[in-house]
Amino acid sequence: MSEPVYGTLKKKIVFYDSDKRYADLKIRLGHDGLSQAKFFRGVLTGYLSQDPDILNFIDKLKAGGRKNSSTKKRNKRSRVLINEGAKALSKLSLNEDEIENIFDILEKEETSI
């Protein structure tokens, strides 16, 4: 029996919160016309793709209300690196499939050596 292709298996993400916050979430999602799945998948996609709007929120979340200058500097430096990387990718005009193909080619060359 062959192994399933990585990235095709479904995984469940679960966490607990209060009944009040759950009810508030359901009301808010209904108001915005979103399902829970669409909301959480959208936030997860934004986080993984390093969407600047989500990253701004993550910076606030990481700071946790503290006014720590080293955290601010680290967050700012991280943001600069992310932006520089995005600019470099746009200059190269590579999409996800092309990047994956490059890694496949490099892997084939390494195995043939």
Q: What do these coordinates show?
A:
With 113 residues, the protein is mainly α. The chain is built from five helices and no strands. It has helices at 19-32, 36-48, 52-63, 69-92, 96-112. Helix 3 (52-63) packs antiparallel against helix 4 (69-92). The chain starts with 18 loop residues before the first helix and ends with a helix.
Brief overview:
This protein is mostly helical. It contains five helices and no strands. It starts with 18 loop residues before the first helix and ends with a helix.
Key structural traits:
71% helix; mainly alpha; 0% strand
Query: What share of the residues lie within helices?
Result: over 70%
Give the class from helix and strand content and strand pairing. mainly alpha
Query: SSE order, as H and E?
Result: HHHHH
Residue-averaged pLDDT = 84
Shape: extended
Q: What can be said about the biggest beta sheet?
A: none
Residue fraction in strands: under 5%
Number of structural units classed as domains: 2
Radius of gyration: 20 Å
- Report the oligomer: single chain
Count every beta strand, where a strand is a DSSP E run of 2 or more residues: 0
Give the distance, in angstroms, between the N- and C-terminal Cα atoms. 30 Å
SS element count, helices: 5
Low-confidence stretches: none
Task: Compile the SSE list and pairings.
Elements: H1 19-32, H2 36-48, H3 52-63, H4 69-92, H5 96-112
Helix pairs in contact: 3-4
